[in-house]
Design a protein that fits this description.
alpha/beta
Length: 301
């Protein structure tokens, strides 16, 4: 069990499907049916690590799985991957409550953190989860929500990897929010494009967004926050993985074997980095495979 709150009366479960590579199922949380797709690697012995992959605002789990090819990358490392759907106001268009973003999830003040805890418990009952190796990644609003999850429940996660995301900002209501410092270190890998027109690399207000009160904190703020939270050394190792295009900034010497890593994409915009080749032993790997490799290096102590 993750916590007593996860067993509140608002939770009802649909039957699990039979064991298969892909399973589509639902659970009811706070009176709303929430759907998800679970990919289980065939032949991998339980308990298995679990990756929670969170789509951006206006997306859905199945679309994020197709866009990122994350299921295959996780399966190659013997990990399960779950692609939950945020609350939907139109078919296939969901959002997560990251408190300052986005959409109906914020407006309705949904307990999406509790939902993810219930989802982990649910999966564990059908496919035993290695609780020391649960991870979260996400794009944009999904990445912001991954930050929220690690901040609220660092005891749940061995590492997170937000893409094109911020740790805080201002909601449309005008209220500002910054994630809390977690009670224990969490390894973090960030991926962000310098030309992102929506979640600006240097923070601030985006002219591409057509509503007021939309400023967000920048990547420098996220690095400062997590380096302090994980109690890392002050000087990063900086390397050019692809000259003029891909830069790696890594803070080591962190508590409990944690680390904070930034992949900075010079021409990257607000999209999943599908055309980036991350350096790997003997060649290169995709964004999903790079995130999985980072996850595989970390186990919650």
């Amino acid at each position: 069990m993750i916590g007593a709150v996860l067993m509140a009366p608002v939770l009802a479960l649909a039957p699990l499907a039979a064991a298969a590579a892909d399973q589509h199922s639902t659970l009811v949380w706070q009176g709303a049916e929430r759907s998800y797709m679970l990919h289980v690697p065939e032949g991998a012995p339980p308990p298995l690590p679990l990756v929670i992959a969170l789509h951006g605002a206006g997306g859905n789990g199945a679309g994020f799985a197709e866009e990122t090819d994350f299921a295959a990358a996780a399966a190659a490392a013997g990990m399960m991957a779950v692609f939950p759907d945020g609350i939907q106001t139109a078919p296939g268009r969901g959002s997560w409550n990251a408190y300052f973003c986005c959409g109906a999830a914020v407006t309705q003040q949904l307990d999406d953190v509790g939902l993810i805890g219930a989802l982990i418990d649910r999966i564990d009952r059908g496919h035993p989860v290695d609780r020391s190796r649960v991870y979260a990644t996400g794009m944009s609003n999904g990445g912001m929500f991954a930050y929220v999850l690690a901040s609220a429940h660092p005891e749940w996660f061995a590492a997170i990897a937000p893409v094109s995301a911020a740790i805080g900002g201002t909601a449309r209501s005008g209220k500002s929010y910054l994630i809390d410092v977690p009670g224990r270190p969490v390894p973090v890998m960030m991926i962000h494009g310098r030309k992102d027109p929506y979640v600006l690399f240097d923070g601030g207000s985006s002219g591409a967004l057509g509503f007021a009160n939309h400023w967000k904190l920048g990547i420098a703020d996220a690095l400062t926050f997590w380096v302090a939270a994980d109690r890392c050394g002050p000087t990063p190792q900086v390397s050019e993985a692809a000259a003029g295009r891909l830069r790696r900034v890594a803070y080591g010497g962190c508590t409990d074997g944690s680390e904070v890593v930034l992949w900075e994409i010079a021409d990257g915009e607000h999209n999943w980095p599908a055309n980036i080749a991350f350096p790997a032993p003997g060649g290169s790997r995709s964004t999903a495979a790079e995130i999985v490799a980072f996850f595989a290096a970390h186990r919650r102590r």
